[in-house]
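Input/output pair, single chain:
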Amino acid sequence: MNRREFLQGSAILLAAGGLPLKLWAADERFRLRAAPGTSNLVGAEYGDTGVWSYNGQIPGPVLRYRQGDTLEVMVENALPQPTTVHWHGIRLPHAMDGVPHLTQPPIEPGETFTYRFPLPDAGTYWYHPHAASSEQLGRGLSGVLIVEEPEPYPVDRELIWLLDDWRLNPDASIRDDFGHRHDESHAGRIGNTVTINGRLPRDVELHPGERLRLRLVNGANARVFQLDFGELAPWVIATDGHPVEPWQPDNGRIVLGPSMRADLLLDVPPDTRQAFTLVDDFYPQRAYELVTLTFTGGPQRSVSNGAIPRLPANPLPEPDLEHATEHEILLTGGAMGGMHEAYLDGKLLSMRELVQAGRFWALNGIAAHGHHMEPLLTLELDASYRIRLVNDTAWPHPMHLHGHAFRVLRRNGEPLGHEEWRDSVLLNARETAEIALVADNPGDWMFHCHVLEHQESGMMGIVRVA
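Output:
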């Protein structure tokens, strides 16, 4: 359907835009202030929306460093509840991971906390709270973190798109129904308003013949994006920040579960003049036009010629697959999931008792409560592991491991036809995936579904590396 039909048929507001975000110089000492504020998400006719934001902007400021730099950010909490900042995808020291009660005390209202850690890997990352995550992200708290390669990658231009969605009332205010049990037991808090960089739809201009680097970040609570680039035929050059051998996805579609990132290279055809509409069709019955790409009559760019160069590799340890220890993690629960019982706080409870306690999901038969618990797995420091993830539920789950990167080896028993290094892997309903990693970062690390309502209602565990 076209945009008008989509808006009229579902009464959904669609916001998209390709404006560049504000960049902060790496030699500044950053101060992020999390506070209530307002932002015009859906246009002047609706007025401003009450949000929670970093430094008064949606999304928060782009923090841009160079590989090998040390990040130092003081976070001030001006919210009405405790918060933290998690630096998503960064391989950092355990004490800097931003998980309340597990890696640090929560930052109480009126308090500050300073994060300081080196940045070993170049790539596209992001930051967000890990306290009351569903509400705090759902009200707007997120931002992009870019770690640049030592030498510039040869493109004509770069765009950053932070994809997000919002659940809004007709007056553009945020619906205050966080923690709804239907969201927790089904697909999560999927919004009715989609934004790119927190703004309304506006055409994005491409120049014929240019080579473009597009950094995509899915910052939504629960929405999975499947972007159909079609004839533009993007090349994937990095997944979750980490360089890979460039590959092209089937049918030009890029799939990103919540928290996932992709760096794309687009070679715009030199003779293109007709506008192209980018469609998100992960949910086939709710497919919609995300944004229109238009093509200016500007000069062709010279850098577009030649092969697709690979980004320089990050210093990731390669798992020893032949001698790796194997584990399995079983995902159960949710509506239509068939889970009958699970352990909660050491007690075996029936599904009815779990629902009464607000727990709908489990990992290996254990429903999480809070962030501090006995480890789901204990891994030996610097050893290699293969972990089979089995999604025995009716819903997608982007499973995220803190403090590490891993290779995705197989899906449903079949080897991937391309290279993927990730910190999150999307498991569709009834799907399996095999990942491999070197447990090279000591500490107790969260492993959880990044549909935040699933995490908060049981789908979380601790992976201990010692």
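The CA atoms of residues 244 and 279 lie 25 Å apart. The first strand starts at residue 13 and ends at 14.
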